[in-house]
Amino acid sequence: MIRNLFHCSGNQHKATDKAALLFGITIFLKFLLFDIIWSIPTTFASFSTIEFYATKIIATLILLIPYKFFHLWKTEVLIMFLLDILLVVNLMYFRTYYTAIPLNSYTLSGNLADFTGSVYDSFRWCDILFPLSTLASIPLYLHYRHSSKKTSHIYYEGALGFCILLFAITIMAKGGFKEAYDKIRQKAYLCASTTSIYTVFGNMYYDLINRKQEPTPQIQHEIESWLNQRPKHHPLVGRVEVRNNCIVILAESLESWVLETEVEGQEITPYLNKLIQDSTTLYAPHVLTQVKGGRSIDAQLIFCAGMLPINSGTYSSQYPDHTYETLQKAMHQKKNSRNYLLTIDKVSTWNQGVIAYSFGTDTIVAYHDFEQTEAFGTHKRTGDGSFLAQCRRKIENGEIWKKGENVYMQLVTYSGHAPFKLPEELKEVSFSSAIPEKMNDYMTTARYTDKAIGKFVEFLKTLPQYNETLIVITGDHEGLTTYREDLCESPGGKGIVSDKQFTPFIVVNSPVGMRYDKVMGQIDMYPTLLNLLQLDDYCWSGLGQSILDPQKKGFAISPQLKAEGANATPEDIAFAQKAYDISDLMIRFDYLGEHVK
Predict the structure, then answer these.
(1) DSSP SS3 for 444
(2) pLDDT digit string (tens) for 546-562?
(3) C-alpha 372: how far from its chain's center?
(4) What phi, psi does 244 have (nearest 5°)?
(5) How far apart are CA 204 and CA 105, in angstroms?
(6) Are strands 282-288 and 338-343 parallel, antiparallel or unpaired?
(7) What is the distance between the alpha carbons of residues 131 and 127, in angstroms, rounded to a whole number?
(8) Which of 176, 414, 512, 529 has the highest Cβ tally under 10 A?
């Protein structure tokens, strides 16, 4: 079809606009290459849909307008370079977050300056094919431009009109664009294919119209019906020791498999291994990562508010002023706590300054409040050892956790960010060349963070208020992303690296000491902590279920709607999958602000 668009009939011959054909084929192949790369880790099922081809042809013909109608070849080349950038950055984003870049996140591109190492780590050799194809088209155009004949627009306009009509009919038969898009996202094996089917531009359009959606009685009924059917939250039975303080360490990208593991005779996390053996520790090693594109900020939503990430975009950017019922607010309401957030990130990163206050945080201690020592990484961020040591000094000096205060204190570490490159002077373990480089780097960084956490927890144990203090250590999300499969299959990583995206949930000085080996979701930490902190009568018990509830089944649902665990019926799985949509609706329409008092 593409070739026929640039022919027209003369009296005795057929003229061809070879340059327009060249540009058209090049643009179309860019979209096709993007979809092939996108589909390799997901599914090629999108290639069997009408919309897949219709959207590519429509986008190609629209992007070809500058040359086809005005012969502005330099403008056409510029458009192709911009398209290259758009497609490549979306592929890089997808490799970490499993989704296209949300529309609102294009205005947050400054955040990438803080994660340059992770960004570079997401680049692949095949990405260079996009700008190379544009560069290759330039000499080809210069070769063909004198032999190209100006042709009628009738075939071009006819093809564009036909594809738009075909796409419209197909979409309308499925209930409209939004309905068709939503149906695909609800399918377990197709949910990541919307961008492949509708292109990056279709993803942007969905974000635009979805952001403008108004609540309806049907949506409210959908939310209330699901909430009424979820398992009820119950307090613990019997006498439970009181904990008036809660210290939370969100360890960047900490996965469970490094705990209780020796590699080449070396413990990766000796201190955490010691902690989880204590009779007063609650330990759950199989916490399924449930974050989406917001990653660390999504983890804070799940952990603090007991809600799942929104379907597209980042809640902290789109809905920072909505109502969130959180552990921080519960602690303040029930225990008159002062709530602290300590992070070496900037408060502007993912809008965390604004969202922290929406969560009920009283004091933020951030980037400019810490000395940049033991710094490493692309932007020389403060290492976990220095960060937690400085947090200790701030407590000792009375800057935070002042005398007589009950506190909720959340510390967010940073050193676990990809690409896990620890300076030689900070390394305490080393491995042979039999261990894959990425696995080596990850374990070395995990050991560094383990030591930092160990020193900080030992300091907390010396405080007079320790007996009334709950210490929670968990990974904010998994860390190996697309490297997992290769590491699991490698001779050095097989049997060591987990093929599951599990993070640990460790509660030190817990009123209930236990080991919970069943699968749970990150969403289940919130109601579990309500139990342990005796905050059970707080107005919001979250979308998850406490692991201390004997009725809880050992499974969880990933952001890709895949069930992990055992003993769940198809009905249990379908209900738990629905929680993602329910949480999305509740956040977007500020349901808690209107209905929970």
Answers:
(1) helix
(2) 999 999 999 999 999 99
(3) 27
(4) -100, -5
(5) 11
(6) unpaired
(7) 8
(8) 529
CB 580 within 8 A of CB 566: no
Q: Please give the Cα distance from 24 to 62 (Å, whole number).
A: 10
DSSP three-state, residue 277: coil
Tell me whether strands 502-508 and 282-288 are parallel, antiparallel or unpaired: antiparallel
β-bridge mates for residue 341, sequence order: 364, 410
Neighbours of 232 (CB within 10 A): 9
**CA distances, 126 to each of 27, 36, 129, 216 (Å):** 16, 11, 6, 45
Please give the Cα distance from 182 to 206 (Å, whole number).
Answer: 9
- List 471's β-bridge partners, or say none: 247, 508
Token code pair at residue 554: 């050992």
Is residue 152 within 8 A of residue 30, CB to CB? The reply is no
Please give the span between the terminal C-alpha atoms of the chain, in angstroms, as a whole number.
60
User: Which residue type does 223 have?
Assistant: I
- What confidence tens digit (pLDDT) does each residue in 285-312 have? 999 999 998 889 999 999 999 999 998 8
- Give the SS3 label for residue 200: helix
The three-class DSSP label of residue 251 is strand
Whole-number Å distance between alpha carbons of 504 and 496: 16
* β-sheet bridge partners, residue 14: 9
Total residues found in the chain within this entry:
597
Rg (CA), the chain: 27
Reported as a single tens digit per residue, the pLDDT across 19-44 is 889 999 999 999 999 999 998 877 89
Is 85 within 8 Å of 236 (Cβ atoms)?
A: no
Distance CA 195, CA 204 (A): 9
252 contacts 118 by C-beta, under 8 angstroms: no
Cα angle value 380/254/390 (rounded, 5°): 45
CA distance 275 to 459: 14
Residues 55, 101: Cα–Cα separation, whole Å: 18
Q: What's this model's pTM, rounded to 2 decimal places?
A: 0.75
Query: Cβ–Cβ contacts within 10 Å for residue 476, how many?
Result: 26
Read off the DSSP letter of residue 312: S
Cβ neighbours of 183 (radius 10 Å): 13
What residues form DSSP beta bridges with 153?
none
Residue-wise DSSP of 74-133? HHHHHHHHHHHHHHHHHHHHHHHHSSPPPGGGGGGGGGGGGGHHHHHHT--GGGGHHHHH
As a whole number of angstroms, the distance between CA 264 and CA 273 comes to 17
Going 410 to 414 to 418 to 424, the CA torsion angle's sign is: negative
Tell me which amino acid residue 473 is.
I
User: Which of these, 417, 409, 415, lies nearest to 391 by C-alpha position?
Assistant: 409
pLDDT score for 106: 79
Q: Provide the token pair at 534.
A: 């005796």
Structure tokens at 187: 């399918």
pLDDT of residue 13: 42
Cis status, amide bond into 217, omega within 30 of 0: no
